[in-house]
Amino acid sequence: MDPLISSLVLLAAIAAGVGMDRLLVSRRDRRRVDSALERSRQTLADAEREAENRLKEATLESQEKIHAAEQRIEAENQAKHGDFEVREQRLRQGEKNLQRRVTFLDQRQTEVEHRETEVQAAEQKAGEIRSSLDQLATEQRERLEKIAGLSAEAARQELVREMESDAKKEAASLLRKIEEQTKQNAHQEAVRITTRAISRVPFSQIVDSTLTIIELPDDEMKGRIIGRDGRNIRSLEMTTGVDLIVDDTPNAILLSAFDPLRREIAHLAIRRLLADGRIHPARIEETVTKVRNDMETWITEAGEAAAFEFDLHDLHPKLIRLVGRMKYHLSHSVNILQHCREVAVMAGHMAAQLDTKVETAKRAGLLHEIGQVEEQNPYSSPILLSAELAQRYNENEGVVHAIQALHRDVAPKTVEAVLLQCAERIALARPGARKDNLDIYIQRLTNLEQIARSFSGVREAFAVKAGREMRVIVDTEKVTDEQAVWLSRDIASRIEHELNYPGQIKVSVVRETRFVSYAM
Question: Among 45, 98, 196, 477, which one has the highest count of C-beta atoms within 10 angstroms of its own C-beta?
Answer without folding.
Answer: 196
